[in-house]
Design goal:
Layout (H helix, E strand, L loop, with lengths): L10 E10 L2 E11 L4 E5 L6 H9 L6 E6 L2 E2 L5 H7 L1 E4 L11 H9 L2 H4 L1 H5 L4 H14 L15 H13 L5 E5 L7 H13 L6 E5 L3 H7 L2 E6 L2 E7 H6 L1 H8 L4
Parallel strand pairs: 3-8, 3-9, 6-7, 7-8
Antiparallel strand pairs: 1-2, 1-4, 4-5, 9-10
The protein binds adenosine-5'-diphosphate (ADP) and magnesium ion (MG).
Length: 255
């Protein structure tokens, strides 16, 4: 059964508008994401994709609209609360802690609860448990061989995987990925896309912003397209890519 046939989305974005001075970076964006789904989010540079992601996780306050997570309106929640409720964002510019091994980078994120919520602090995992979680996440993202290495020793392709592991450490219901393939070689990008394709499961969905259309087309069944801040198309990948407005706005322009 397709995730889209389920009734209740895990995430609903309703009429979100974000302005910067006079510029409407996002103009009444609406989309829904279902459990166990991988949704591709495309659009030309400057379309407002990153801005919408930041509004979803609470880094930016929209002038209007609502964000609903698992049926709960979180529009007024701070970013920390949204993370605690099950959202994570892997940003385009990755910022690993350079003086820590990959294991410690992920273990810190796994134990991050104590920084966020006093209630969770009581239930906080022990350091050993954090390391076990970190080990298993690094295995999941294909970095089992580098757990004791430092970020500065590793190529960008590995660091992008580390960023995903750090985001997964929060056990997100909704994982937001902003251009995780950017800057990667063709082979690295294909490997990373395979990893992203393996991420959705019951209790975990993914929104993928990405310019690499070949990989997006290969791994995403559903696409959302934004252009000049506005919703342009939303639906099954091949239908969306065949849409003339999308072709004119997006495919007609070289990236
Ligand atoms: N913090 C900001 N302050 C002012 N303008 C911004 C800011 N962030 C983004 N913008 C502008 O908003 C528009 C959308 O940007 P962005 O969300 O980064 O697009 P995309 O991720 O689709 O390339 C662009 O015109 C950009 O210059
Ligand atoms: Mg962007």
């Amino acid at each position: 059964m397709s995730a889209r046939t389920e009734t209740q989305p895990i995430l609903e974005v309703k009429d979100i508008t974000v302005t910067f001075g006079g510029l409407k970076a996002v103009d009444r964006a609406s989309l829904s994401l279902y459990d166990n789904e991988l949704l591709g989010f495309i659009g030309p540079n400057g379309a407002g994709k990153t801005t919408l992601m930041r509004a979803i996780i609470g880094m930016i306050t929209p002038v209007s609209g609502h964000i609903i997570l698992a049926g709960q309106d979180i529009s007024r929640c701070r970013i920390v609360e949204r993370i605690n409720l099950g959202m994570a964002l892997a940003q385009q510019i990755i910022k690993p802690l350079k003086d820590m091994t990959l294991l410690d980078n992920v273990a810190l994120a796994a134990g991050g609860d104590k920084l966020l919520s006093p209630v969770k602090a009581i239930l906080n995992r022990s350091r050993q448990q954090q390391q076990e979680v970190a080990n298993s996440l690094l295995r999941e993202v294909g970095l089992a061989h580098s757990v004791h290495k430092y970020p500065t020793e590793l190529p960008l392709g590995y660091l992008k995987r580390l960023e995903v592991a750090r985001a997964l450490a929060r056990q997100p219901k909704v994982l937001l990925l902003d251009e995780p393939l950017a800057g990667l070689s063709k082979t690295e990008a294909e490997g990373m896309a395979n990893l992203i394709m393996s991420l959705p499961r019951k209790g975990r969905s993914v929104i993928l912003i990405e310019h690499n259309l070949a990989q997006v087309r290969r791994i995403c069944k559903t696409l959302y397209v934004q252009h000049n801040g506005c919703h342009l198309a939303f639906g099954e990948t091949e239908d969306v890519l065949a849409n003339r407005d999308v072709q004119l706005a997006y495919l007609g322009k070289s990236e």
